[in-house]
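Example 3.2
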Amino acid sequence: MKRFEKWLRSKKIEPRRFYIGAILVSLVFILLVVINSIKDDTDNKIYLTEDAEIRTGPNASYPVLFNIREGEAFKVIGHEGKWLEVTSYDEKQKGWIAGWHTNLDIKEDENPNAQPLKGKVIVLDPGHGGGDQGAASQTGKSTLEKDMTLDTSLELKKKLEKEGAKVKLTRSDDTYVRLKDRKATGDVFISIHNDALESNKANGATVYWFHEQQEALAQTLNASIQKKGMLSNRGVRQENFQVLRQTDMPAVLLELGYISNPTDEVMIKDKNHRQIVENAIVDGLKNYFLS
């Protein structure tokens, strides 16, 4: 050290000033590194401008890994076309999202197959209503079928409209609509219900159809619900329900769990569970119209 300071003095450099200068240069270097790191992180950071999905690959045909919400932030680690490979900041979620769901200026694909529900008229029929409460809970939680079918239908309506569909409701509040009036013109008709039996052991989802031209829709929706949902599969069945019999359009009646079953009841009341089932119905309708 003394030799170094002696050398500095021989060069007419005050050692103390040299050390102070060296420290300042080091601090500036560290600051620049930090700033660049923050800038890189900011450049790679995106926000969702609407609800979306993380998929296994850069295409809408790839399976959904996670449903993600508007406002969530992700780090971009790659891209392919208009699709971004991202990871969450806790590294628990990783996959691909469509860039048009983010704050980046990316226009949505114009491929007509990307929006198979665009322009389709979907009739949603929330079962029961008003003085007709439908099935009721056996657990003392006061769960009424008429309330759950309306909640599900209103939530599903928003999802379908987001996909470009036009949605008609046979009821939009707690009113009673006669069975013969539960119809409208459209591309498909979906009646939403929750089942019940005296026994609390029955559980699961059932999809009903009546006319032959309704079976394909029933099979497609049942497959989609079973792929995503947690309700056990009670299958696809033909049944002479009036709301199905009185329309010639593709139509189904969905029994989305048993209110009389304590486990199903918890799922029926849980909004997150309903979102999963509703997303499955949307996916099923997409597959139906693409087929």
